[in-house]
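Meet the record:
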Amino acid sequence: MLGAPTAFEEFFHHSWRRLFPTAMAIAGDRASAEYALQSAFAKAYASWGRVSAADHPEAYVRRMVVNEIISSRRSAWFRRERPTGEHDSTVSTASEEAAVVDRDALWSAVQGLPVRQRAVIVLRYYEDLSEAQIADVLGCSRGTVKSQASAALKNLRTGSGPVLDPEGSYR
């Protein structure tokens, strides 16, 4: 007979489902997202006393996941193991709905952003975090969040994806 789940097991089962979409959006692929989550949860388990004592343990682990994704992009193995060819962002799957095509093009454009800019965009518009919360997750100042968001939106506006209006919504 199995015992009752531990506090960490309960936290893991409830948090994984909420953190995976964010990790996937920032990492850009399932394997990298799963790797970042596994690594962050392993580290959280190893220091569960400190993590569980945090005001918001899930936010603490979210920051660990984002840091894991960003730091993995800096390592030499990531640059060696990733394709270096240009991605043709004009190719998309056929769909009868223009909104689906636009959303696909927008996410393709977001995936083309540098990882810190992509993290800011995902945390702001997908997770609906404030500038202060994003700065806390990324370990930077609010000014850096603002400049990264501005650069990301500029890159998205000038890219080949859907046209964004000044408020950041696509049309």
Q: What stands out?
A: Residues 160-171 have pLDDT under 50 and may be disordered. The chain has two domains: 7-81, 96-171.
